[in-house]
């Protein structure tokens, strides 16, 4: 580098050469010995890397989420996704009832949820929106995939213009990025919690078999996501979303051996199950 200065200066020049800077600013910063100019260039690069959402970095080359307008990540995602989230009330043996959550994935009323929510029932009712006085909609079970604990329902008597969730690409999800969980636990409707993607599961377990071939998925494909976004009974079958409101997983269980962290079936497994069942 010009001007000498040892290892620290060498490192600073290497860093400036790698940062996302306009060509003219990069040239001036590299040619100058003014520390404040280099700092200004570094701050500009940091702002370039920064997402609109609370300082999370954009590292996968896609545009940042839409402006929040002062809302939090969870609030923006909830506004986009909740219209496509349903409350599921299955009738079990001896007329016992339970409660779970599901996601509308087609305008004509296909709903994805967990098999343990709706797989063994004598009847299923679904509620749209947050108004408890909304008349229930009957649903029938289309099919299940026991290997991934997924079930697909069909809402009956709908008009075919329902809002749907957007299924994301699990392979593009990064460790530590925002994760927003939505569901309907206990007596509450439309609960939203915020956390991060804490880990990926690629091991041979209940989530790691391709529903189409029943063979183990490739090790490079995440089959389940671990998150510290709070889950509660009743949120099973609900979506786990990224900061753009794309569904990256279906919430499935709470890990008691990991301080209550949640596990979600990855969106890629959900897509495979949908193509097989529906």
Using brief descriptors, characterize the structure shown.
single chain, 278 residues, Thrombin, subunit H, 3 domains, 6-stranded antiparallel beta barrel, 29% strand, elongated, disordered N terminus, Chloro_Bact_Ser_Proteases, protease, serine-type endopeptidase activity
Describe the protein's architecture and organization:
This protein has 278 residues and is of the alpha+beta class. It folds into three domains: 6-49, no CATH class; 73-80 and 166-277, Thrombin, subunit H (Beta Barrel); 84-155, Trypsin-like serine proteases (Thrombin, subunit H), CATH 2.40.10.10. The chain contains six helices and 13 strands. Strands 1-2-3-6-5-4 form a six-stranded antiparallel barrel. Strands 8-9-10-13-12-11 form a six-stranded antiparallel beta barrel. The longest helix has 15 residues, at 35-49. The chain is elongated, with a radius of gyration of 23 Å. The model is unreliable at 1-8, 49-60, 204-208 and 216-220 (pLDDT under 50).
Tell me the number of helical segments per DSSP (H or I, 4 or more residues long): 6
The first-level CATH class name of the largest domain:
Mainly Beta
Main sheet attributes: strand count, strand direction, barrel closure: 6 strands, antiparallel, barrel
Termini, distance in Å?
62 Å
Q: What is the count of distinct domains?
A: 3
CATH architecture of the largest domain: Beta Barrel
Shape: elongated
Q: Name the beta content range.
A: 25-35%
Radius of gyration: 23 Å
